[in-house]
Amino acid sequence: MNAISAPARISGGVRIRGLTRRFGSNTVLNRLDLELEPGSFTALLGRSGSGKTTLLRTLAGLDPAPQDSTVQVPNPTAVVFQEPRLLPWKSVWRNVALGLNERAPRAKAEAALREVGLAHRVDAWPLTLSGGEAQRAALARALVRAPRLLLLDEPFAALDALTRMKMHALVLSLWRTHAPATLLVTHDVDEAVLLADRILVLADGQIAADISVALPRPRRHAHPLFAPLRARLLAELGVELPETDDEADSEAERVPDFAGTV
Helices (DSSP H) in 144-188: which residue ranges? Predict the structure, then answer.
């Protein structure tokens, strides 16, 4: 069995060399190499079981990395999961400030909550929050730590479509303001195209595709480059969508102009 360790801390982005993770006889990550630039926004796609969450948990230090690999991340690092994971017996601001070594944690928590539009819910209990509000609180809990690496593990998957659009816009606004290197793990190809400037596809334990997103912001489904990029990514994931030009035009016409504007 290989010796394991926590990720090394560096001042820049992310650097991974030769990362292998096995669970029994199943090799999930196979000598994977990856670099993320400081301030970049990257989305990670892959089929279920491809190792997306394993990679994210390794970067977060939640799962140790083998010592025969190189895993270097900036400090601090923050993670937002699919579930908000708020403690129901603590108020919203105390959830946000959890673990902070500050003399005035409430002031810092309130500032983060204002940034995510929850200034009016500072003293609320988590069980009184809507799904979107709870996920905003989870974002504030990550933001309050001023992360240089922000890891997002399908944080919008459980939200309805309109709330998800609002959360997309919020995450982009926070990313522009604070400029952490951001890695979004998602199953949603459209979400990846709308948010990220670089999209990685994970397959067979390796980065099978590394695609730059050249679409201008704000992004819309109706942009002529959106559908071809979406089709390419689906093909990388093993999903072929036979579609004529007329069908693509009809699909674009069905999407409201505001949809996906982020």
Answer: 161-178
CA distances from 112 to 19, 154, 194 (A): 34, 21, 24
Give the strands of the sheet with 70-74, arranged side by side: 8-10, 70-74, 14-23, 26-36
Taken in order 180, 189, 213, 50, is the CA torsion positive or negative?
positive
Contact 193, 215 (CB under 8 A): yes
| Spatial separation of the C-alpha atoms in residues 71 and 149, rounded to whole Å | 13
Between vectors from CA 180 to CA 176 and to CA 185, what angle results, nearest 5°?
100
Any idea which of 45-59, 150-164, 239-253 has the lowest mean pLDDT? 239-253
Residue closest to 7 by CA, chosen among 144, 200, 203, 19? 19
pLDDT band at residue 126, thresholds of 50, 70 and 90? very high
DSSP state of 102: -
Phi, psi of 7 (to 5 degrees): -60, 145
What does the longest C-alpha to C-alpha distance in the chain come to? 62
Coil, strand or helix at 130: coil
What's the rounded mean pLDDT across residues 33-46?
Answer: 96
Question: How many angstroms separate the first and last alpha carbons of the chain?
Answer: 46
DSSP code of 121?
A: G
Q: pTM for the whole thing?
A: 0.87
- Model pLDDT, residue 162: 93
**Secondary element (H or E) of residue 16:** strand 14-23
